[in-house]
Amino acid sequence: MPTTSEHLTRRDWLVWLGFAALLAVAPMVWRTSFAQTMLSQVGIAIIACLAYNMLLGQGGMLSFGHAVYSGLGSFIAIHALNLAAAGKLGIPVSLMPLVGGLAGLFFAAILGYVTTKKSGTTFAMITLGVGELVASMSLMIPEFFGGEGGIQGNRVFGQPVLGINFGPQIQVYYLIALYCFVSTAAMYAVTRTPLGRILNAVRDNPERVEFIGYSTQHVRYLAFMISGFFSGIAGGLGALNYEIVTSEVVGAARSGGYLLFVFLGGATFFFGPILGAVLLVIALVLLSELTKAWLLYLGIVFLIMVMYAPGGLASLIMMNLRVAAFGKLKRLWRHYIPLTLAGLIALTGAAAMIEMVYHLQLNQALGPSMQFLGLTLDASGAPSWLAALAVFVVGVALFEWVRRGFGREWNRIQDEIAVEIARREAA
Amino acid sequence: MSEATYAVELRDLRKSFGKTEIIRGTSLAVKAGERVAIIGPNGAGKSTLFNLISGRFGPTSGEIHLRGERIDGRAPYEIARRGLARSFQVSNLFTRLSVFENVRCAVLWAMGYRYAFWRFLADLKDANDRAEQVLRMIKLERRRNHLAMNLTYAEQRALEIGITIAGGADVVLLDEPTAGMSRSETSRFVELIREITVGKTLLTVEHDMGVVFGLADKIAVLVYGEVIAFDTPDAVRANPRVQEAYLGSVLGQGH
To answer: Which fold has domain A10-311?
Structure first.
């Protein structure tokens, strides 16, 4: 009888050890201050995205307003930080993220009580409403939210403990890394408890859950509060990291970002949101530097993923690992390389056109000529447009051609795997 | 009712949807340990009756008692916690969880683990043992790690029953457990139902008269929201009113 042990295997321990090592070593490999900034943001985003996925992936709750809990965590934490700096509060800087977490828990307990009364579309609509409510309040109460300028803080005060005063970014990074590891482990642990499993059951079939003794509303509420707690920790870390908290941290754009990147990373696997968090920081920091049209590119990527890979990056990886486990991944490589090349050609054509449009709209004063990948394009001239269009069409055609061969090979492999599994089960 | 209280008792139960009255003054008293089949033509209100007893809907008027305690108007989970479990006519599973997880979820509340998020499932020996035991009872050990949505129809029906009985409820409602099954599957399934409901009070809605007469201690005939007969199988078969209203057409000749 094929039973699988539920205790952590040696491989599981290695994965966790690897995760810890990665967090520890990353800033030693990428030493620039820019890298430290990015890594700090990744650590925070990982906590926030995992907390969000406790609702979306684990509990089937689509929230449009989860920035409320990370954001209010940020605000409470920065106020606490300022009180501590003024000597009115005896909490060390290293525990400020926990203050944020408790704030997130507190607000999730209050607002979530209303939100989680309903599920499905109604739940989504209420979160949207609560999100808008808090976002508009952030402009109405400048005493707490700091108005346009936000609330500033200073994480360096008092005597350093063991030489640590959280002045240098690297010290903040390691604080974030520590919280990130512990929070990730704790959220993973929750998925292996009775509440965690019943939360999955509520996601799959809320009606049936009621007939095996559970109040679905109570399950949703508890999960919402736990999620709010970890979101608040992320918010508290954000307050320490930036030393300023503005009203945009509770805004709809931030909430939408959680949803978008958790989805891109993959909501159906525990580790999916971690990938999503990395993508989030890359998009926010790198892509937005590279092009003004970054939101458009992001939207296109999101659209393609929703249509062709609804399980996100994580499910793409897991599907290929499955193929690899059966020793058949080699057969896919000779498709992946041309697929990537064809995709890049199509992207180059599309990007050239998008950038020309943006150039015409935003940089009119600079004239029609612009730089693109080392080429000079004339945004108002037909030749540039025709060339870009041609590159795009050729890329798409190539992609489609290669994709068909890939699809056939993929299906063949899946059939072979199914046969192999049936053979093993019969044995 | 000075003698022992009934396992399930319905008193003048009524349920209307809009202007249509589906359940029209039903009274029924089921003793503990009895196996009762509820039969009747389509649209008689059999499933509605189950939905009322299990708390899916509240009745318009009347009372429902579970072991002497009034339960009408209570939420399904409150009724489930008092030891009443039900299955569904259309399999109602946790589709993206494994077969084992489906059963274990149904065990957790009864075992007292409730909403615990500070204990690991892997350490809950009694719940895991119970879930494995139920898997053996419903003969799905070999499918243990498959997702519920990947099971065959008959296997899904078995899992549906497994989830229903896993928590150890002593009043079990089965809504058309053998619907859509082949003859051989049905007879195996009746055996299964008999085994797993030993010592329990069973109410089942069933269309297959072979199943009904093979399984039930008593039969309740429901026609247009009213119980027109409630008696032993032989007495029900001989009842002229039942013959006229329903059985004559279904049973026809020589069962």
So the answer is: ABC transporter involved in vitamin B12 uptake, BtuC (1.10.3470)
